[in-house]
Amino acid sequence: MSPPPLAEELNLCLCHGCGHACDLGLGAHQCERCGALLHARKADAITRGWAYLLGALVFYVPANLLPVMRTEMFGQGVESTIGSGVLEFWDAGAWDIALIIFIASIGVPAIKFFSLGLLLFTAQRRSAWARRQRSQLYRFIELVGYWSMLDVMVVALVAALVQMHGLGTIEPRPGILFFGLVVVLTMLSAMSFDPRLIWDSDPQQGGSVDGAGHQ
């Protein structure tokens, strides 16, 4: 029993905007449903993925070293980094908020850095190792990305509650901006990656995709 034909063999292309299957054999360059430009593959998927990921790693350093908020209680002001903020919330008995910030600010970025680096490296090497698991890992990274700004929202919520009760003031500091850039760049890196690169055949089996994601 022969395997079913590939979309490439049928000149079909899936629109990245609306998911409509378009017939490239008719010379179409735009989706007939939404008008978006058609691409058989995400252009320069690996190159752009590495660029965004390395940019996120660069911004992650000041995001952890610079203060993310300034807390002023009873006339005394303290500037806190991500790490010291987690410890302060923990010592104050707000272990749930401390846990959320730790997971969202330290745990999730570390997982995303490692996972995206693994996906990009193995795709660039055209490795056949654990393809199904790597596809599942990519879907997990997409899911985690929706919660990446959770700690920023927690800081904003705590600041609003503190000021509302008149206990003091909490103001954002430059570290929160750099962390926001880290979140955006890791999301762009995940969006730039083409998971079909995981399943591309080896050179000996026919079919070739270069390191930039073109076919």
UniProtKB/TrEMBL annotation:
It comes from the Bacteria. The keyword Chloroplast does not apply. Pfam families: PqiA (PF04403). The keyword Cell inner membrane applies. The chain crosses the membrane at residues 50-69, 97-122, 143-164, 176-193. It is found in: Cell inner membrane. Keywords: Cell inner membrane, Cell membrane, Membrane, Transmembrane, Transmembrane helix. This is Paraquat-inducible protein A. It comes from Metapseudomonas resinovorans (Pseudomonas resinovorans).
